[in-house]
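Subject line: Sequence and fold of a protein, written as structure tokens
Area: Proteins and the way their chains fold up in space.
Start of record: The labelled sequence and token lines come straight after this line.
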Amino acid sequence: MSDVIAHIESIVGRVLLATMVGLVFIAGVTRWFGHPLVWSMDVAQLLFVWAAFLGADMAMRKRGLIAVDLFVRWVPARHRVFIDLAVGLFVLAFLLALAKLGYDLVMLNREREFGDSGISYALVTAAVPIGCLLLATTLAGQLWETARSIGRRPQLVFSNARPEEVDEALGEGL
């Protein structure tokens, strides 16, 4: 199931990016000819918001989000896994809270129009709860995978590297 979702996200992300580029290009050309498409920039911004959340989820699936590990870098591998789990649970709670608040925002913006496009602003704000739920689902799977791996070779939540690989790399760099 996860592979299917990742494949769909990849296709949708590529389509969103190509559509954004196309809309901005067409808007520039038509503006140069003196007939601007006022709505095209609004639609491109809407697509950008959705692409940002899809891209974040795709990066999280690959454990490729930027991580600040300055404070945990020197913690031994067997302890770092538990720190990762604790931080992951905190982030999961935050994403679920954002999803709930995002849903409330969508309901508040159903009647509001997005710029000159005539599109409901709810389509823009819907990216927040849906994107946060996608991220929360991915993170929950990674937390589960990490928790199950504790007895053997633990897998960090936010990194592709195994904790012992991190320890080895740090030992060589000293």
Observations:
- Residues 2-173 form one domain.
- The first helix runs from residue 2 to 32.
- The beta strands are 113-114, 119-120.
- DSSP finds six helices and two strands in the chain.
